[in-house]
Specification:
Helix content: 40-55%
Largest sheet: 5 strands, parallel
Low-confidence stretches: none
Strand order of the largest sheet: 2-1-3-4-5
Number of strands: 5
Order of helices and strands: HHHHEHEHEHEEH
Distance between the termini: 61 Å
Mean pLDDT: 87
Shape: elongated
C-alpha cells in the first residue's frame, strides 16, 4: 500500500493525500474519505521516505550522566513526554559520569543524524567545547550554563541573592 493507492481508493489526487499526511489544507469531505481509507487499509507512511523528504529523523539524543538518579529520571520522563506529544522519540546515552563516554555519545549522535541533542552535562572540558562548536544540529544543555548555547539550569547564587 502506498500513497498512490490511498489516493485511488479515496478518489482524490496524490497531492491531496500528501497534504493530508503532512497536516496541510484539505477539505473536510476529502479528509474524511482519506481517513476512512487509511483506517480500513491500516496504511502507515514509510518512515524512510519521510526522512528522505523532510531530512528529519524525529529522534532526539539525550546524553545523561547517571540513569539511576531520581532527578535525572524525572527529567528524562518530562523530556520524553514533551517530545512524544510532538512525534519525536528519544535515544538515551547513559555515561556514568565518564567524560570520555560523554564525548563518545556526543560523537555518536552527531554522526547518526538525530534532529537535536539534549545534554545533561557534568563538566565541560576543552574537548566538549570544541565538539559542541562543530555540531550541526540544535543542542540544549540542562543543569549547567555554557555561554553561546541554550541552557536550562538553576542559578543558586542569583536565587540566594534575590
Amino acid at each position: 500500500m502506498n500513497i498512490n493507492e490511498i489516493a485511488r481508493l479515496a478518489g482524490v489526487s496524490r497531492t491531496t493525500v500528501s497534504r493530508y499526511l503532512n497536516n496541510g489544507y484539505v477539505s473536510e469531505e476529502k479528509k474524511e474519505k482519506i481517513r476512512k481509507v487509511i483506517e480500513e487499509t491500516g496504511y502507515q507512511p514509510s518512515t524512510q521516505a519521510q526522512m528522505l523528504r523532510t531530512k528529519k529523523t524525529k529522534l532526539v539524543g539525550v546524553v545523561l550522566p547517571k540513569i539511576n538518579s531520581d532527578t535525572i529520571s524525572r527529567e528524562v520522563a518530562g523530556i520524553s513526554d514533551v517530545l512524544a506529544k510532538r512525534g519525536y522519540q528519544i535515544i538515551l546515552a547513559n555515561t556514568n559520569n565518564d567524560i570520555e563516554e560523554e564525548l563518545k555519545s556526543l560523537s555518536l549522535f552527531r554522526d547518526n543524524q538525530v534532529d537535536g541533542v539534549i545534554f545533561i552535562a557534568t563538566m565541560f572540558t576543552r574537548k566538549h567545547k570544541q565538539m559542541l562548536k562543530e555540531y550541526k544540529v540544535p543542542i540544549v544543555i540542562l543543569g549547567q550554563w555554557l555561554e553561546g548555547y541554550p541552557c536550562v539550569y538553576q542559578d543558586d547564587y542569583y536565587a540566594s541573592y534575590m
